[in-house]
Amino acid sequence: MKISLITAVFNSETTVGEAIASVAAQTYLNFDHIVVEGKSKDGSLAAIQQVQHDRMRLISESDRGVYDALNKGIQHAEGDVIGFIHSDDFLAHPGVLERIAEAFEDPAVEAVFSDLDYVAQSDTSRVIRHWSTGPFRPGRLRRGWMPAHPTLYVRRHVYERYGAFDIGFGIAADYDFILRYFSRTTGKSIYIPEVLYKMRVGGISNRNFAKVRQKMAEDYRAIRRNRVGGLSTLALKNLSKVGQFLVRQA
């Protein structure tokens, strides 16, 4: 089974090398890695080329934002299963794709996801938040549940059946896709209760108050659009983040 990983890059000169290296280090070798670079203003392209590996394909052209770049990656992916590794982040260890491939050995499985650690920008060994997703049950969507999107791997036919990312969302197209898929699917999903992904804090959705407000507005639009709840769902989604900090402080 082939796995495709997609990385969208824009102005990530200092971190994209680590993201790519974490993919190149995987012990599961039946994968391809599509890096979609959006004509960065910094040295991102040179940083990518320095660590390019033999299973990586580079697309360097202008795009309409991160979700447009991810959609391009999906179109170019050759794998039976598709996942993502963002340019500021990295896979937790070299056995991550082994764990994903094992979970997909059951042909009934459509989606696999895991836990995620948010780590400090300057010291990635320091965990700031721990996102423990828990398994999917339909009723949990109305209570604000969502898997950490970077940990989510799905079979190619999921995008063919349910569509990819709606670039009308600037920040929350991943949440919109998750609600669209999980509110409609009858396929089997597997939750792996392990940290398989490390994400640096300070991403676009929580960079400042304006972005937080935009994220909340887009989340609510996605909730209503996919008919999984209302303001209470949005409130519960945001309240669930509190426990992500408390887990690591305990």
Task: Give the key terms.
250 residues, alpha/beta, Spore Coat Polysaccharide Biosynthesis Protein SpsA, Chain A, 23% strand, globular
Describe the structure.
The chain contains 8 helices and 9 strands. It is of the alpha/beta class and 250 residues long. It has a single domain, classed as Spore Coat Polysaccharide Biosynthesis Protein SpsA, Chain A (Alpha-Beta Complex). Strands 1, 2, 3, 4, 5, 6, 7, 8 and 9 form a 9-stranded mixed beta sheet that branches. Helix 6 runs parallel beside helix 7. This is Glycosyltransferase. InterPro entries: Glyco_trans_2-like, Glycosyltransf_2, Nucleotide-diphossugar_trans. Pfam families: Glycos_transf_2 (PF00535). Residues 4-139 form the Glycosyltransferase 2-like domain.
- In terms of per-residue confidence, which ranges show pLDDT below 50 for 5 or more consecutive residues? none
Rounded to the nearest angstrom, the distance between the terminal CA atoms is 40 Å
- Give the overall shape: globular
Quaternary organisation: single chain
Q: Helix segment count?
A: 8
Please identify, by name, the CATH architecture. Answer: Alpha-Beta Complex
Described by strand count, sense and barrel closure, the largest sheet is:
9 strands, mixed
* Secondary-structure element pattern, one letter each: EHEHEHEEHEEEHHEHH
- Report Rg: 17 Å
Q: What name is given to the CATH topology?
A: Spore Coat Polysaccharide Biosynthesis Protein SpsA, Chain A
Total domains: 1
* Residue share in β-strands: 15-25%
Number of strands: 9
InterPro entries: Glyco_trans_2-like (IPR001173), Glycosyltransf_2 (IPR050834), Nucleotide-diphossugar_trans (IPR029044)
Domain Glycosyltransferase 2-like: 4-139
Protein name: Glycosyltransferase
Organism: Oryzicola mucosus
